[in-house]
Each structure stands twice: as structure tokens, then as C-alpha cells.
Specification:
With 386 residues, the chain is α+β, with helices and mostly antiparallel strands. The protein contains 11 helices and 17 strands.
Length: 386
């Protein structure tokens, strides 16, 4: 029966035009025996869920906080509510990257239907992902408010917000999501290590974004060429200085995590020190002598190393996180950031949900009115499988 359902889904969707994603969703709902099916897409800020329509959002919006659909998204679990009809919300994810939820309406809900959900939804996600590259429908559905041109560039530059394997996870988030400027991050989960970078270009708007784009792509090139952290720092500094002049610079932290040993190696180019949470406790900042920001002609002051234990979390962030102020002038600060990180860790939520909660706390602190970009990058070591 399950094999027939999967075959029906593939046969019913693979030939559909990429612009008809709602028909893809309807086929999946029919295969699952639902009276109605629709996809709710998470917005850029991970605050809202928008119904995916034929050419973008339909106008039906749900908050992630305080709704059953949002609970399914946050907890990554199937939520079933009511009878006659029964509403079911199924999280949609590409690996560990959360896309939204599938909402299904049933007149009759059975355990047989529940058993078919996971494999059918996995195939649905693969079909949606293969088709979304050819249409703007999904990206339009992610917009809760207009996206600036600078933010459009940054979001297209980013990798998926999270990647999780059995040995490590890397999760990041940007704020303000709809008008982000010079902040960005990047990572790659390779066979032996997780390599990452977080950057903050001086200034705001398009000029800062162009520096950020140049820095991220220079660091990607260094990473893919395998030339190491010092050369990555030097090459990127030369690119920034050559292309933007001697008064422009990009602060950054570059690092790699050896997946077998847990050895974390990183270089600090003018950023706040990362925070370490171990065994559910904040153990302090990880020290690394700062090098000059990239573009100012400096040399590497230190490449720091620390051996992580399974379960350790290290949070890298830009200064906009801790420097943001409430209306009364109180800074968000390192103690508050560490406290929220510990709380998320003790709650047992995923790295992706942890950074979403941290970001929401930062935005709540300043009344959703950031004066500077605020970016978080959380690295969690799960341990070696050997």
C-alpha cells in the first residue's frame, strides 16, 4: 500500500510544471487520503507561516509562536487535533533545514494514515525542492514584509540556515531578516570537518553587502582550495583592500571543527569572543587574541584551539547582538545572551530552534528595532561515531 502511494505521488507530480506547486501539494494530500492539503512556508525571520499559493502567499498567515502549526514546526513533530474534521500538521524539512509544515484535513483519521505520513512527506519535500528552483512562488511565500535589495543579495548568498549530522550541527540566523546589511555566515559540512565563517562588513546597505559578498566568496574559495585559515584570512584581506580601498574592512571569525576528535580551531578577526556551554552550564568565553579586521593589512595574531566534548555548544555572534539596546538604553549584553543559550540547551531543543529562540529574544529586547545587524552561528559537537 505504501509503495503504491509513493508511486502515485511520483507519477502525479514529476510532470507538473514548476509553477504549479499547489497542484503538487494537492496530489500529496490525495495520496494521503486527506480532504484538503496545503503547505505553510516559514518566513525569512522564522516568525510566521504563510500558506503557499499558486504564485506566492495566499494571505493566510499563522504565527509560529502559540499555534499548533507553529508547534509542529518548532518541535519537529506531527500534531493531530480535533475530530470530524481532524487537522494534522506535519513538519517539512530538507534534512535538518526547516521549510514549514504540511496541513492536512481529514474526515477520518487512522493509525494507518499516520504510518504513511513520513515516507510520503519525504518524497513531497524532494519534489518541492526540485521544482522550487524554477519559480519564485516559494521565495515570495517567505516574505512577511518587503525584502530590501541588500537583504535579497544576502539571503541568496547564504547556505541553508542549519545542517545537522550524527557528529555535529551548525545553525545560523540573521536579523533584521528583511533589511540585513553587512552581516553574513557560511559553512560546509565536509567528510572530516565542519568549516565555518561569520563576517560583519563595515557600514550599512549595499556597500556593506558587496564587501560581505566578496569576503564570503573569498573564504569559500580558500576553503575549497584547502589552503588553511591563515591563508584564507590573508587572501580575503587582500581582496577587500584591493576592491574597496584601505578604509574598508570586514571583521570575522573563521574556524573548523574536526569531527573525529572534537578539535575546534578558529581565528578571531575583530569579533566578540565565542561563548561555550558545556553540560548545560555557561563556562565562559573562548579566548583568542584578535587579529586585525580583514582589509586593514594585519597579520594573524593567533589561531586558537580547544578540544570540545560531546554535547558542547559554541556560539559565535556579531557585535550587533550584544550591543542592541532596549528603549530604556539597557544593552542586551553577554550575560543575557549566555543565559538564553543555557536555557535553550536545558530545554533540549535543536540547534536550529535554539538560534531561532535567541534571535526572537534579541528582537523582543529592542522592540524589533535593531540599529545594527545581529547574526548568530551555533556550532554543536555531538561526538565521534568511531
Amino acid at each position: 500500500m505504501l509503495e503504491d502511494a509513493l508511486l502515485s505521488l511520483l507519477e502525479g507530480t514529476t510532470e507538473l510544471p514548476a509553477s504549479e506547486l499547489t497542484r503538487v501539494v494537492n496530489v500529496a494530500g490525495k495520496v494521503l487520503g486527506a480532504e484538503r492539503a496545503r503547505v505553510l512556508v516559514a518566513d525569512y525571520a522564522l516568525v510566521w507561516l504563510h500558506e503557499l499559493g499558486e504564485d506566492g502567499p495566499t494571505g493566510d498567515v499563522r504565527a509560529i509562536e502559540g499555534t499548533l502549526a507553529g508547534h509542529a514546526f518548532v518541535r519537529d513533530e506531527v500534531i493531530v487535533s480535533g475530530s470530524e474534521p481532524t487537522l494534522v500538521w506535519v513538519p517539512l524539512s530538507e534534512g535538518s533545514e526547516r521549510l514549514g509544515v504540511l496541513e492536512l484535513t481529514y474526515e477520518s483519521w487512522t493509525d494507518d494514515v499516520r504510518a504513511a505520513l513520513a515516507p510520503v512527506v519525504r518524497v513531497l519535500v524532494l519534489v518541492l525542492i526540485s521544482k522550487r528552483r524554477y519559480t519564485d512562488a516559494v521565495l515570495r511565500a517567505r516574505r512577511h514584509e518587503p525584502l530590501s535589495i541588500a537583504a535579497e543579495l544576502q539571503w541568496d548568498l547564504l547556505p541553508p540556515l542549519t545542517c545537522s549530522t550524527d557528529r555535529a550541527s551548525v545553525s545560523g540566523i540573521l536579523e533584521p531578516a528583511y533589511s540585513i546589511g553587512g552581516d553574513s555566515f557560511d559553512y560546509a559540512m565536509n567528510r572530516d570537518g565542519a568549516e565555518f565563517a561569520i563576517v560583519d562588513a563595515v557600514g550599512h546597505g549595499m556597500s556593506a553587502v558587496m564587501m560581505s559578498v566578496a569576503a564570503i566568496n573569498s573564504l569559500r574559495n580558500a576553503r575549497r582550495e584547502g589552503i588553511g585559515l591563515q591563508a584564507a584570512y590573508e587572501n580575503t584581506g587582500e581582496v577587500i583592500e584591493t576592491q574597496f580601498g584601505t578604509e574598508c574592512f570586514v571583521t570575522a571569525q573563521l574556524g573548523s571543527l574536526a569531527l573525529d576528535s572534537g578539535e575546534l580551531t578558529w581565528l578571531n578577526a575583530g569579533h566578540p569572543l565565542p561563548l561555550l556551554v558545556r553540560d548545560g552550564n555557561f563556562t565562559g568565553e573562548l579566548a583568542c587574541r584578535p587579529s586585525m579586521p580583514m582589509g586593514l593589512g594585519g597579520s594573524v595574531a593567533e589561531i586558537a584551539e580547544v578540544r570540545l566534548q560531546p554535547g558542547d555548544r559554541v556560539l559565535f555572534y556579531t557585535d550587533g547582538v550584544t550591543e542592541t539596546r532596549a528603549h530604556g538604553g539597557e544593552r542586551f549584553g553577554v550575560p543575557r545572551l549566555a543565559d538564553f543559550l543555557v536555557r535553550a540547551t536545558l530545554d533540549g531543543v535543536s540547534p536550529a530552534e535554539s538560534v531561532r529562540r535567541l534571535s526572537a529574544s534579541i528582537m523582543h529586547h529592542n522592540g524589533n528595532n535593531l540599529s545594527d545587524d545581529a547574526t548568530l552561528l551555533l556550532v554543536e559537537y555531538h561526538g565521534s561515531t568511531n
